[in-house]
Design brief:
mainly beta; four-stranded antiparallel β-sheet; about 50% strand
């Protein structure tokens, strides 16, 4: 059975940092593109960052360029999102996603990130 379990969310002040983790099980993690998405209240879910199998290519949404870093540890079946210089607009539920061409995507349950003073 596939599981994607996010952790690391919480309340942080503007300018602060958080690191999200997503622990995967039940599928061959290393061959999947892993991504982080987010969804703010009343808004569509949007892609934040993605990392290819092997970690050679990382892509970021324009709104997080230079502030967030995605990484993966295939030995631990875990993907991370280091978030720095957080802004109130970053407040959202953050979701982990596993995707591979021709295969169904997998989603985690999400972790809440709130940026507020």
């Amino acid at each position: 059975q596939v599981h994607l379990v996010e952790s690391g969310g919480g309340l942080v002040q503007p300018g602060g940092s958080l690191t999200l983790s997503c622990a995967a099980s039940g599928f061959t993690f290393s061959i999947y593109v892993m991504s982080w998405y987010r969804q703010a209240p009343g808004k569509e879910r949007e892609l934040v960052a993605s990392i290819t199998s092997g970690g050679a290519i990382r892509n970021y949404a324009d709104f997080v360029q230079g502030r967030f870093t995605i990484s993966r540890d295939d030995a631990e079946n875990t993907v991370y999102l280091q978030m720095n210089s957080l802004k109130p607009d970053d407040t959202a539920v953050y979701y982990c996603n596993a995707d591979r061409k021709g295969m169904r995507p997998y989603w985690g349950q999400g972790t809440q990130v709130t940026v507020s003073s």
